[in-house]
Amino acid sequence: MQRAEPFKIDQWMEEYGPGAKICLYDSFVSALSLNELQQLAPDASHATLDPNLKLTYGTLLGSLRLRERIAKIHSSPETPLTAANVVITPGSVMANYLVLAAICGPSDHIVCQYPTYGQLYLLPRYNGVDVSLWALNEDKNWSSNVEELASMIKPNTKAIIINNPNNPTGAVISKDILVEILALARERGIVVFSDEVYNPLFHTSNRPPPLVSLGYNHTISTGSVSKAHSLPGLRVGWVVSQDAEIMQRITTLRDYTTTSVSQLDDSVAAFALSEEVLPRLMERNMTTCAESIVILDEFMKRNARRCRWAKPDGAATAFVQILNEDGSASDDVAFSKQLAEQEGIVVLPGGHCFGEAGVNDLKGYIRLPLGHPRLLDAALEKLEKFIHKQTHF
């Protein structure tokens, strides 16, 4: 029997999370309660839940209200979308799973941005797909080089996969670069799939639109309310695409995995994404992350000889490299284990959880959360002392 590779992020959290004093492995902005979410509505009559809602199975593809709202969020004047272009799923992990199953198989080749959330290339690899990793340029703030991407295309390339904003680096692919990627794909009829679970959580004025709004039919965007919208307890994600053939495949595959998303989750998600609530929610979350970035930037300046990073332009995570006294990259697994065992602080070792030998092993990196500024501030004080206890990790 073929076995899937262990998912190292979850394994690490399961091993070191229980009993930890401070957990710094979250990748979402601090979660909201229903009451806190309700308070973001300008009008108290605009309720998160209808108490008369009958708890039957929900609409198979998601409520019309939620799908129409997601379609509008992903639309542009040139590319108007409708509810027919949206399928609701139990979180973005399921959305990604369905997309990957629909767009590539054992005889196919894909190119996937790297580093990224492992599911996006490990699952295709498990299913026998030939995978090439398109590495972001570490020395240029994790930037993207489309010429390098073009050199990786093969006759059997079926898809280009990106994660924008990027987990773990916080890098953002600009609209100009997205247009270049689409031009490359259009010449060859290649699908471009963008995991946009962190959209619209940007920390820069140069904010790219959803990929599916840029006018190329063979594009797919996935997302959820878990990360950027502070609602990971709601298992609501989505797939958006104009490609009717791909959406039909996804709908068929979904029938084998999901009857419907919980009506409660669907209703609260529609409230959070509504025109009245979403701007206030995102203002809260961008302010939260901005506070964390300032805290982390001050820490980096104080410890410039032992740490380096590129400030994140998006998402709710930062990728920080811990250096030894001689300037070499630390062993991120050894560092993270000692930090957990000696200080009770759990971080994700970047090389272990996100690295691939032969591309960029991401040695010495740890991923830190931006969604909990007070927790981060308290942890960094301890982390600073810990780093300087040893000259080498």
From TrEMBL:
Taxon lineage: Eukaryota, Fungi, Dikarya, Ascomycota, Pezizomycotina
InterPro entries: Aminotransferase_I/II_large (IPR004839), NHTrfase_class1_PyrdxlP-BS (IPR004838), PyrdxlP-dep_Trfase (IPR015424), PyrdxlP-dep_Trfase_major (IPR015421), PyrdxlP-dep_Trfase_small (IPR015422)
Keywords carried by this UniProt record: Pyridoxal phosphate
Any one GO molecular function term: pyridoxal phosphate binding
ATP-binding recorded as keyword: no
Signal sequence annotation: none
Protein name as annotated: Aminotransferase class I/classII large domain-containing protein
Gene3D superfamilies: Aspartate Aminotransferase, domain 1 (3.90.1150.10), Type I PLP-dependent aspartate aminotransferase-like (Major domain) (3.40.640.10)
Family affiliation: Belongs to the class-I pyridoxal-phosphate-dependent aminotransferase family.
All copies of domain Aminotransferase class I/classII large, residue ranges: 51-381
